[in-house]
Amino acid sequence: MPAPEAYARENVPRSNARAGAQAFEESEDPTIDRTSRPSFPQRVAKILADEIVERSLRPGERLLEQALAERFGTSRAPIREALYLLDREGLVQRIPRKGAIVKTYTTREIEELYKVRVTLEELALERDCDGSRMVRLSLTALDPVVREMKKSRRKIRRYHELNFVFHKTIIELSHSSALLRLYTQIEGPLDMFLRLSMTTKDVVSKSIEDHERILAAIEKSDAAGASEILRAHEMDGLERALAALRNERSF
Known about the structure:
Elements: H1 4-9, H2 17-26, H3 40-53, E1 62-63, H4 65-72, H5 76-89, E2 92-95, E3 99-102, H6 107-128, H7 132-151, H8 156-173, H9 177-197, H10 201-219, H11 223-249
Antiparallel strand pairs: 1-3, 2-3
Helix pairs in contact: 2-3, 3-5, 4-5, 6-8, 6-9, 6-11, 7-8, 7-10, 8-9, 9-11, 10-11
């Protein structure tokens, strides 16, 4: 089954900070084999990333190592590593002699992120539409996601998660390690801006229509047509995200 990681992820809801902290505290049972589990700093980074994406931690907010160490019941070393991971994901900015803050993105940077995303997905679509076998695999992976999106149209948060899965799966289906590596580098901040752009049920209805049209183009092996729909879809999302940010910063 193609792209199992992407489609499986939609079945795992994001946890809030308290639930997340409790989850990794409970996982410290020494009898549990943790060879394939995320490290402690990775789990801390995941909780903080969720809070940044959900705007519980605001752009420009300082992330004090000592305060975070006390919160998570650890020393400053794992916190420092977690902040390093978030810095690499583009969610945190580390400033010499000042420490770490939640990264603030300029309008130009957000526009560039969206353009990079569109370019990567268009390149992936060329592969996904290349021949009947790839088309069949793509439809097999993407169609269930769209069906689930339609069922979740009244649950904005759930819909956002599925929307993210759909676009990540387009990349994973291409089996291009280069595209996947580049996409992974920008998906942290993209997740945040996509959430900002997905705020009303009217937006969701239009989004579902766009995804169905992308699927129809893939079914015809029409990479150019799918890319055209995708680009318009992403630019609409960009405008909504920027509008939400302008409204947010006006308060």
